[in-house]
Amino acid sequence: MKAISDSLSHPQSNDQVQQPLALCKWILFLYTLYLFFMIACSVCNTIFLCCSPADSISVIDTGNGIKIQLLFGFLRLSESYLPPNYMNTSVQLLGIPLTILDILLEYLPKLLICVQFQKIFRKLKITSTPFFPEIIFYINRIAYSMLFLGIFSQFLLQMIVFRIAYQTFYFNNPLRFSWILAGCIALILANIFRHGCMLQKESDETL
Fold it and tell me: At 39, phi and psi to the nearest 5?
């Protein structure tokens, strides 16, 4: 109740909070459009690889990896992420799983993170306090999606692709520590919000 009365008595402070949120919402909106664009390109590239003869697809050995010509752009793979005999496979066996798994293991988790942020911004717009159980639920989803991107995304991609393309299990540098760190920070933030919800509930009960 105190938080509500403070926001009513200081409308300018509420506007100062809403302005950065509006900027964040626009950035998030543009990034979401980018993800949809990348998903659409990956779908088109997958269809292109499925329908094109293998000898019509340009595969370039760059000396430290390979570069595959796609309908939209190139598919570049560094030598550090490839097995020693990385040229001894079909371009379709390598390219098709990569483009499909890019959608499932990379773009969709990022899209889920964007959706959760949009829900948080929508909730903050209609409430006077951020301490709600729904926001904790959204932050936890963001955290687990980030941890998935950091721990499992590249591991699963490399394991599945190389099993299909090279009939072997091979993975190198599958962990992405920036995503793991971001996920841990988000989990800590969720616990802080959980404690804030408890204090907010106690405050409301005493008034």
Answer: -65, -45
